[in-house]
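Justification of resources, computational component.

The compute hours requested in this renewal are based largely on the per-chain cost of generating structure records like the one below. Each record pairs the submitted sequence with a full structure-token output. That output is archived, and it is also reused by downstream analysis tasks.
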Amino acid sequence: MKKLLPFFSLCLMSFGSLAQTLPDFSQISLTEKADYAQAENAVLQAADYILSTPHIESNQQRLSAMQFLLKWMEGTPDFTFEIDQTAVELTKTDPTFLGVYLASATKYCVENKAMSKDKKAVKLNTLKGIVAYSINPENQVKVKGELKKLIKASEKGELEKYVG
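The structure output for this chain reads:
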């Protein structure tokens, strides 16, 4: 049994490192309509990575994931994304936070295709994702301005009122 323990430890470490392995986004073709649907798994990986890493600009993998996500969002024929006044207000004090907003919206839409055309549901669930990301101290988000109001509305159970 003692000889198997190092083997199991090595296996667990391998699984942990695989979880953080991202595809080479530059090698994913997004030229044909079918490419966008085929890329949805990579899109979810990109969104999950953005939503699980600290909000710092120096992370090259995060930047690569964000660039891929934006390219996919701009071209996908299956989903429509809006940057409304709420998104503008939330990112006013930190424009780079728009990446978190878009990752949250994309994740919800791809995972909930049947609800992806319901603008209110998309917005509500995008904001829930932003709150979850922002209150996690590991993500190093500076909570101020509209983001602070959003978190307070969520804490009071008034997120649906916040959405309008």
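Confidence is low (pLDDT under 50) at residues 1-19. Residues 119-135 form the longest helix (17 residues).
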